[in-house]
Structures are given as structure tokens and as C-alpha cells.
Amino acid sequence: MRQRIINNLARAAGDSDALAPVRREQFLVYLMGPYRTFDVDALLPADADVETDAPSFATWDETSGEYAEDEVLRLLQETRDCLRDRGFNAFLAIDVGIPLDEMDAATQSIAFAQASNATIFIAPQVGDNLGVGIEIGSVLEDILSTAGMQGPAADATPPTRARRVMVATEPSVRSAMLGAVHARWDASVRTFTDAADCCRLCAQFCTHIQNEELYGSLDRLD
Question: pLDDT by residue (tens digit) across 79-94?
Fold first, then answer.
């Protein structure tokens, strides 16, 4: 999957102006966020109550949130482009171009996170019931269980893999799930104030992961 992502992103950068080429092609940064609607019922157990059991963006409310869906997508795209300008091979799931009939969105998220050097979930204030989300929860839970991992990632302990994950939120975001990100999965939670600050925060995190791979205790994935 890792090489497939790199190849698809390179092809996308060569075919259009949507993605700029990057210096660090092997340093993948997967950006996640609430930019795509999905079938909540399909992702929950049959006996689950959507009103009480669905975290996150299952209850997107544009009237109470500060962003509409297209504005959140734009924030993610701007952050991706900013990171790519700094040399990191940042991408959104839609950039890779894997059809959903080949691999569903939740499975893609787990596979993309496993293949990436860093995974960042950007969580702006989009409504009353904002948590970290079904997707980030499944990614982090998969990190706790190394089953199914292949390559260098398979040798990493769950805490080591979790160090590659950061959640970037606005200060107004309040959620019990944000506390669980650190307490249960030992991943980082940081806050940003605007798009420029979000890029700076994400770039600092990517630089930290890169330095940990080169000089610290994280294995290089390339």
C-alpha cells in the first residue's frame, strides 16, 4: 500500500496542477478530517443507537458549527499544500484515488495510516457533537493491535506507532474523545487558531517525526 500511495501521488502531481511535486517523496503524511459524509449506520454494530453510540461527525450541524463542509475541505487542502511546499508528501484520501468499491473509506483510513510516516487528524469546530471520530478511533485502535501490519510497521510496539499520530483541534473543540486520544492511545493533541497556525503545527510535528526516524527511536519506513 505504501508504494501504491507514493506512485499514485506522483502520478497525480505529474498529470495536473492539483498536487505539487515534493522533495521528500518517501515521507508520507496522511491528513484526515470531517470533509466527507458517510453512512454512519454501515459503520456501527447492528444493535447500536446512532444518537448515543456514534461519535464525531455523524451529526454534522452546519448551523451550529463555524464551518461548512466545503470550508473544512479547503482547510485540509490548504494544510496539505502547505506541507507539500515544505517538502513533505502530504495527502488526503481523495488524492490517492482508490475506488470505494475496491476498499471502503474506513479500511482506507487504516491502510493509509499504517503506510504513512505521520498521520494528522484536523478537527475544526463543525457542530455541537464533535468528537475525534469513527475514522480516527478505528485508526488508533488498530495501532493498539498490530495485527495485520506489514513491513517495518509490524515491528513497532503500539505506543511507538501512536507517536506518529497527532490530532490538531481548534481551542473551541470540546470532546471526551479528545481526552481518550491521549489517555487510551497516547497520541498527541494540539490546538491551532487559523490555517497558517495549523500548517505550522503540522509541519513541526512532521519535522519531529522525521528527526525521530533519523536520530531517535522511530524506525524509518522508506
Answer: 999 999 999 999 998 8
